[in-house]
Structures are given as structure tokens and as C-alpha cells.
Amino acid sequence: MTESNIQDQSHQFILAAEGQWVDIEAGDPSSGNKKAKLVDKIVNQWGRAGVAAERLQQLLNHASPSVRLAAASHLINFGGADLATPVLKELSKSPVGLISSFADTVLRVRKLAD
Predict the structure, then answer these.
(1) Is residue 45 part of a domain?
(2) CATH number, domain at 86?
(3) What is the predicted pLDDT for the residue at 112?
(4) Mean pLDDT, to the nearest integer, of 37-60?
(5) Model pLDDT for residues 50-108, shown as the tens digit of each residue
(6) Measuring CA to CA, which residue among 79, 90, 85 is closest to residue 111?
(7) Is residue 13 part of a domain?
């Protein structure tokens, strides 16, 4: 996997992560789920290439809460719970509708909540 491919996938990850929540909140969960599956596919490709943790860590600082949520949720699977947990805790206190609920759920399911 080339750096150019990884950059393209990072851009696709961002668009899909943002679009997922836009679709869900607009009442189109089917389209939102397709975007979530694209995020999963990209993360799986990064995992096979050995760059998932690095890429997801970089996305933890993205301006979009939905991108940070997707990155943090996936980073837990690549040994990054220590970095993902503070991001998820911050998002769980956010006034951004469903994103805060999802972040809280990830924390509880993964037993990372206080």
C-alpha cells in the first residue's frame, strides 16, 4: 500500500465517517450503514498493511466529532485504548446528539467507562 493510497483512504474515511451520521440523523440509516461499512473496510485494509494504529491516531485530532468517534472506536482494536478513551469520554459529554450516545455505549461495552 503506497502513501498515496493511504492518503486517499484517509480522505474516504473522513467523508464516510461524517456522512454516516448525517444520513442517520436525516432518517436514512441504510445509507448510513453503507458508509459505516466503508469505514470498516478501510480500517481492515489499514490493519492488513500494518498502518491502522498510526492512521487512526492521526484522525483522533480531526475537527469533526464523527471522524474522532470512528477513529477512537476502531483504535481500541489496535491497542490504542489509552489514546481512544479520553476522546470517547469527551465525545460522550458532547451535545452532538447520537454521537454522544454512541461514544458512551462504546465506553461501556468496552469496559472503559469510569
Answers:
(1) yes
(2) 1.25.40.70
(3) 82
(4) 96
(5) 999 999 999 999 999 999 999 999 999 999 999 999 999 999 998 767 899 999 999 99
(6) 85
(7) yes
Range of the domain at 67: 3-109
Number of domains in the chain: 1
**Calpha distance 30→84 (Å, rounded):** 27
pLDDT of residue 113: 75
Q: Is residue 114 part of a domain?
A: no
* pLDDT of the residue at 109: 92
Cα Dmax for the chain: 40
| pTM exceeds 0.85, yes or no | yes
Cα-Cα end-to-end distance for the chain: 38
In a domain? residue 8: yes
Query: Is the distance from CB of 55 to CB of 11 less than 8 angstroms?
Result: no
